[in-house]
Amino acid sequence: MEKQQFKAESKRLLEMMINSIYTQREIFLRELISNASDAIDKIYYKALTDDQLVFNKESYYIKVTADKANRTLTLSDTGIGMTQEDLENNLGVIAKSGSLAFKKENEAKDGHNIIGQFGVGFYSAFMVADKVEVISKALGEKEAYKWESEGADGYSITPADKETVGTDIIMTIKPNTEDDNYDEFLEEYRLRAIIKKYSDFIRYPIKMDMKGQRPKEGSEGEFEEYQEEQTVNSMVPIWRKNKSELTQEDYDNFYFEKRYGFDKPLKHLHISADGAVVYNAILFIPENTPFDYYTKEFEKGLELYSNGVLIMDKCADLLPDYFSFVKGMVDSEDLSLNISRELLQHDRQLQLIAKNIKNKIKSTLQSLLKEDREKYDGFYKSFGRQLKFGVYNDYGANKDTLQDLLLFYSSKEKKQVTLDEYVSRMPEDQKYIYYAAGESIDRLEKLPQAEIVADKGYEMLYFTDDIDEFAIKMIGTYKEKSFKNVSSGDLGIESNAEEKQAEEEAATENKDLFVSMKELLGDKVTGVKASKRLKSHPVCLSSDGEVTIEMEKVLKAMPNGQDVKADKVLEINVNHEVFQALKEAYSNDQQKLNLYTNILYNQALLIEGLTVQDPVQFTNDICKIMV
What we know:
Elements: H1 8-21, H2 27-49, E1 62-67, E2 72-77, H3 84-91, H4 98-105, E3 129-137, E4 144-149, E5 155-160, E6 166-173, H5 188-199, E7 206-215, E8 223-231, H6 248-257, E9 267-274, E10 278-285, E11 302-306, E12 309-315, E13 327-332, H7 348-371, H8 373-392, H9 399-402, E14 408-410, E15 416-417, H10 419-424, E16 432-437, H11 441-445, H12 451-455, E17 460-463, H13 468-475, E18 477-478, E19 481-485, H14 497-509, H15 511-521, E20 527-530, E21 539-544, H16 549-557, E22 567-572, H17 577-588, H18 590-608, H19 615-626
Parallel strand pairs: 1-7, 11-13, 16-17, 16-19, 20-22
Antiparallel strand pairs: 1-2, 2-6, 3-4, 3-6, 4-5, 7-8, 9-10, 10-13, 11-12, 14-15, 14-17, 18-19, 21-22
Helix pairs in contact: 2-5, 7-8, 8-13, 17-18
């Protein structure tokens, strides 16, 4: 038969497909296997309405055969086949989908669904092949036909010899170039890997002739090579099995087989949703943090399948960033895919699945927190930081979702506690949720600013992560209780009448001294005052305003080194013996007052973990008071 030309628009589409629609060449095998699966499904559908047609599943399969010598790769199926007219209409007109037409005529029944819908997947073969031959015999037809093409130049259809119903696609693989290795698509191990990656859960057997070695009969220590036909795909995915059939070992094995991580999963979720959107999912909460988790190189996302065919390795849209540690997969028939089946249209179905998954993960973590605190503590050690980032990001939009999952170290319980547990223990007279922020629990337990809070018997939360205080600022209030840093200017702890009188007298009596100290320190502090919080320590820094001293440290340590300063107040314990030395210096020796002021200020800096601006001068000042 004379060569026929593709229509002009089809020719342009074919050229575009070979060069740009698919981002990875290996996708061609997924597309051809999906088409072959559709061809077998069509016989299944016909058998539902044709009493003379018996569908025996064991008789249907897909076969992949590589011939290195002739550089051909053949994919055969025992599906419904194509007539001469089908070959002309489906392969001669690009983007006309025979599967889509069949799907409209025969609505999906009994859990099966036709995969192909765009009619372009077949042509992905030209990404790896110079020539493609399709030999097909349709069900109920006596004649077989061959469709042959070398690409955009056109195609021919001629009669062919084929005894059995079905289709053979024979691809002549391109020769290697300096930049491209096409030999890989003739290698047994590579073909098997591609099938396992994309088509492992196609419902029909995908067979290959696999080579191996075995002991040679009658010859001890000698081996012989052999070749046997093997089914390389799993066919029945674990997520389509009843949960009652599966054991924890089955889920763990799936986790390892899919290489979701090298640890043992802490928890799994098996979701079978049948509502506004139908999907199956198996999700895992890992036990340990991946080595690259907190780096730019880490990619979040779940494997996405459509009808058992892998569409995306990592679909980021299915997980919020704060749950990016979750591993697993989602399979749905309801997704709107784009023409290459590599990307998703951002549609309502995807959003519904993502929302449902988010809620399922949250409820699973809440159950773990309530029912197995030890396991949750282990999880939080690995991923708690990410939850706190989730609270902070997007201006606190996700705080209601995450705040009950947060843990902080308690000054009273000496262990991690939830915000709910803290609030449930608060005395009636306690106005705020108190916290201290710093580098370590050991340092925070010795913090001078916390003395009055501890004396009142109030519990404190210790923030040792640089994100902690920023996250809490986004939460704002929890169960109508505001958060208060123990270094804040006003702690909201009211003094009794006697204490108030003493404080007022101290402020009035020493007003000029504090003004003089402020002038000596300049803009290093916004003020100097008598402390209401110090009991045994002589000096400390407190802060006024939204930026705390610890926040200042964090911001300055960032790569861009933001020049943000907390409004620092130097607080002096007027009941400490050091204060008497200050008063005497103020009355008799201005030089000593200058010396003492600088020493006390630098001591306060060191207590906060801040850098002393001039350490040499500070050591010299210490030496002066020793002489």
